[in-house]
Amino acid sequence: MKIERQPVRVSTVIGENAGQSVLEGSVSLPVDAPEIGRLLRVRAHPVIMRYEVAEEQILIEGAVDLEALYASFHEVDGGEDTSAEVVLEERLEIGRWDRQLPFEFVLDIAGAEPGLPAKVAVSADRISYELQDDKRSVTVDLVLGFSGTVYRIDEHSLTTQATADYEVHREQRRIRLPLESVSVRGQERIQGFLAFGGRVLPQKVLSLTIRPSGEPTVRFSDGTAEIRSALTCAVLYTASEVGAAYVEWPEELVFVTTVTVPENLYKAMVSVDFSTADVQWQTIDTEEKRGMGIEATVFADLKIDQVMETAVITDLVAEEPYQVAVRKDWLLLREAVGEGRQHTLTEASLQLPAGALPIERLLLSEATARLEDVHVLGDKVAVEGVADIEIVYVGRSGETTSLTTCSWPAGIFFEIEVPVPGAEPGLERKAEVGVEKVRVDVINRETVAVELDLVTTVALSRSIELDHVVEAVEVGPPHPDPPSYTFLVLQAGDTLWKIAQRYHTQTEAILRCNKWLESESSELTPGMKLCIPRRRESKGG
């Protein structure tokens, strides 16, 4: 009888938790920046700089990046078209403060121990802000959301094959085990040219963003992964002829990088997150070219969630006249039932609230989605959620234009069904939803049409008890009159349990007769002799 065992490194969740914390602070513009005439919006981007798993908790440290979009007021000549000698002109500006608001948070996690790996995340759940009287300082109140998972990598050896020279019936159980995930980063320095055509060139670039267009492709081959994605470029800028302007170049650039990954992967869910650094640009206005030359470092963070599907042997029964003895081990495991990802297009028409300035020209649009409820049904997962929408635009009232914003908290409700084979009520679930792309078109001066490309991912799991075979050996009938002792020359693959089964004795009895063995797990060296007691010990002494 020969059995084959497959080693696996299983990711076992020890504990997870979430919490919130309030963060307050104030930031000020540098001395050479224009004063804030009117705040349009403030965005917060918390960054985790360090975390440590301690006894029953995770210690998280970081800081918040802040970005304020505002209008500055400037006195200019009224010109011939107005009776006023001097008028106030609005100009769009951006103020940025990197790592200005530090934070510390302790997240309680039952079962956490120093040295265990963890996954942590932080988000800005709510933000409120106020412009101070000096017109240069902004007070910010933030609600930060923290989440953390502490896990352990357990190494198991599962019996997946059993062979013999005779007929053996195998009882098997098919399971899907979450393995240790793989994360790797690729990066490339990219260059490009954004043609402006007949558009007015920027006098001041406020922001240049580079983001993926749609879902990237990942191709695996011989220990490598090629990540490829089209990139959309967008520029927010100002020029005296047009004031503020926003221009996009869809799928203008192509990003390709190759990273090294393990050769034997059990791919379940593959995701790529993009980010940029050291973004540079210059305006070009020649007879041959008219636009912006750009350069940036693009990072692609590839994450591979692994799930191994295998059939584990839970029992072995031989056909007569053969007999097989088996030793089993009991395991408590987390099984990955199924995963799913769904792309959904959601549309809605939104009216400007009463009192909002009618839309003259749209500049920016932004959307964030959050889940409200998750239902696990038969072979699918139904999620419900809402999306917050915000626009920045040039509004008009009579002859006067003004930079302004409008937001629709929970403005769009969505229901999405994600197919997941094997889904059923009662399973543990994790679900996330994100906005891949937002498109806003002006229907009329009081109404906008919004399209959201939503990406929903779900993963289902459950705890299972697995009683599986760890050793097996062919045994014959007991000897009717065995000798008191047998001396056996050890062979490769021998264990005390197998020897005890073959000779119808107990491992404890073998240990008592071989003082050089400390325990049942002591190493057996091939070639050495082992004394095996064959007769059962008399209870009478």
Compact description:
By secondary structure, the chain is mostly beta strands. The chain has helices at about 495-500, 505-515; strands at about 1-30, 40-55, 55-75, 85-110, 120-130, 135-165, 170-180, 180-195, 205-210, 215-220, 225-240, 245-260, 265-285, 290-320, 325-350, 360-375, 380-395, 400-420, 430-445, 445-475, 485-490, 530-535.
Structure description:
- The structure is a single chain.
- The protein has 541 residues and is mainly beta.
- 3% of the residues lie in helices and 72% in strands.
- The chain folds into 4 domains: 1-162, no CATH class; 164-319, no CATH class; 333-476, no CATH class; 478-533, Membrane-bound Lytic Murein Transglycosylase D, Chain A (Roll), CATH 3.10.350.10.
- It has 2 helices and 22 strands.
- The strands form 7 sheets. Strands 7, 8, 13 and 14 form a 4-stranded antiparallel β-sheet that branches. Strands 9, 10, 11 and 12 form a 4-stranded antiparallel β-sheet that branches.
Secondary-structure map with pairings?
Blueprint: E1 2-28, E2 38-54, E3 57-77, E4 86-108, E5 118-131, E6 137-163, E7 168-178, E8 182-195, E9 204-212, E10 217-221, E11 224-239, E12 243-260, E13 267-285, E14 290-318, E15 323-351, E16 359-377, E17 380-397, E18 400-419, E19 428-444, E20 447-475, E21 485-489, H1 496-502, H2 507-513, E22 529-533
